[in-house]
């Protein structure tokens, strides 16, 4: 009997939950927190061998990441006792698959599948700023996600107000149809950079220039507000990254040089982009424009035709005053661009040939 009693005491001691200090999510203009249902995958590793899984949950210490290889039907790694609010995981072969759980339920209702392609072709997706009408945004997110882009580039404001947690909750949750299959690569706008401490912390970004090296493709994402002075380290980094790469090159900005004259951007950055023959995605919210000038293919996710100087209108190929998104297929000999409106109707199609 005494042994049985001692066994019960031992079992009780071992089964008691550990005392954990609960970490609170950052609060801004309201008292909401980002939902348990959303997850965003980013990376600051240019080789794409490490990912950051970014999420908020009020009980992060109970969370668990399960990483598995579906073709072998085996779990390759588990991560537990995570701090709020992100965890780094390694790439597993070409396809990395995981789920986010806690002790009682599945937090992320969908399996997340991140592909780093070793073969051609593959797709990337590009869209502009937030769409205020929630129903329209959800329709866009589904149509966008159905294309299964390996990464998603954002060129505009992420939310209506980057300091309001309610807007962040909606952004993360309403974007899940494309977030669950893509690495998220925003070029942060002036509005987003105002709240830089929170946003850089949430996305696990360490600076305003991020480089991504895919098979046959280099993407450079540039936040607003970085130093583009003639002899700046940031400008030298961009120049070196582009000069050392011989295949497809994409640069992502928020400002459209045709309507937002900025001395450092137009006089210092553009000559570097021109000599490297890049595709330049620029920001906005509603609309689509395409220009070709001085070895650059400009794709603007905004409509500003009436603001463009007359001489620059000679370079305008297409302009549509409607929300749009771009699906870019990367092949060895060409980049194929298909531009759709929110209803998935094709509004432009073109290619850039080697």
- Beta percentage is 25-35%
- Helix fraction? 10-25%
**What series of H and E elements makes up the topology?**
HEEEEEEEEHEHHEHHEEHEHEEEHEEEE
Q: Cα distance, first to last residue?
A: 83 Å
Overall structural domain count: 2
Q: How many separate helices?
A: 9
- Note the overall shape: globular
- The tally of beta strands, per DSSP, is 20
As laid out across the biggest beta sheet, the strand order is: 11-12-13-14-16-15-17
CATH topology of the largest domain: Purple Acid Phosphatase, chain A, domain 2
Flag low-confidence runs.
1-35
CATH architectural designation of the largest domain: 4-Layer Sandwich
Main sheet specs: 7 strands, mixed
CATH superfamily grouping of the largest domain: Metallo-dependent phosphatases
Mean pLDDT: 81
CATH top-level class of the largest domain:
Alpha Beta
Given helix and strand content, the structural type is alpha+beta
Global Rg: 22 Å
Structure, explained:
This protein has two domains: 39-116, Sandwich (Immunoglobulin-like), CATH 2.60.40; 118-353, 4-Layer Sandwich (Purple Acid Phosphatase, chain A, domain 2), CATH 3.60.21.10. A seven-stranded mixed beta sheet has the order 11-12-13-14-16-15-17, covered by helices on one side. Strands 10-9-8-18-19-20 form a six-stranded mixed beta sheet, with no helix packed on it. The protein has a four-stranded antiparallel beta sheet with strand order 4-3-6-7, with no helix packed on it. With 354 residues, the protein is an alpha+beta fold. It is globular. Helix 7 runs parallel beside helix 8 (263-275). The longest helix is centred in the first third of the chain and has 14 residues, at 2-15. It contains nine helices and 20 strands.
């Amino acid at each position: 009997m005494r042994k049985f009693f001692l066994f019960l005491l031992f079992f009780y001691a071992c089964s008691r939950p550990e005392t954990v200090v609960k970490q609170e999510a950052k609060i801004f203009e309201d008292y909401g927190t980002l939902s348990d249902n959303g997850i965003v995958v980013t990376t600051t590793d240019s080789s794409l061998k490490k990912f950051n899984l970014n999420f908020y949950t009020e009980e992060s210490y109970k969370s668990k990441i399960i990483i598995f290889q579906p073709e072998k039907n085996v779990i390759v790694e588990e991560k537990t006792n995570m701090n709020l609010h992100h965890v780094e995981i390694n790439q597993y072969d070409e396809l990395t698959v995981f789920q986010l759980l806690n002790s009682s339920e599945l937090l992320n209702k969908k399996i997340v599948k991140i592909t780093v392609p070793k073969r051609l072709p593959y797709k990337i997706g590009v869209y502009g700023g937030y769409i205020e009408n929630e129903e329209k945004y959800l329709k866009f997110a589904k149509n966008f996600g159905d294309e299964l882009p390996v990464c998603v580039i954002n060129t505009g404001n992420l939310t209506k107000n980057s300091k309001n947690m309610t807007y962040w909750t909606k952004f993360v949750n309403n974007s899940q149809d494309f977030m669950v299959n893509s690495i998220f690569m925003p070029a942060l706008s002036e509005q987003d950079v105002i709240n830089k401490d929170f946003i850089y912390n949430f996305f696990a970004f360490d600076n305003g220039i991020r480089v991504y090296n895919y098979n046959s493709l280099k993407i450079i994402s540039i936040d607003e507000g970085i130093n583009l002075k003639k002899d700046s380290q940031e400008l030298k980094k961009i120049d070196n990254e582009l000069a050392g790469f011989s295949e497809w090159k994409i640069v992502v900005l928020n400002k459209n040089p045709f309507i937002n004259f900025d001395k450092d951007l137009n006089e210092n950055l553009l000559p570097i982009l021109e000599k490297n023959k890049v595709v330049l995605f620029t920001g906005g919210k509603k609309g689509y424009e395409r220009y070709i000038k001085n070895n650059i293919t400009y794709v603007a996710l905004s409509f500003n035709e009436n603001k463009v100087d007359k001489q620059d209108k000679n370079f305008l190929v297409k302009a549509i005053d409607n929300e749009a998104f771009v699906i870019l297929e990367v092949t060895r000999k060409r980049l194929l661009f298909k531009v759709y409106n929110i209803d998935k109707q094709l509004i432009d199609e073109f290619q850039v040939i080697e």
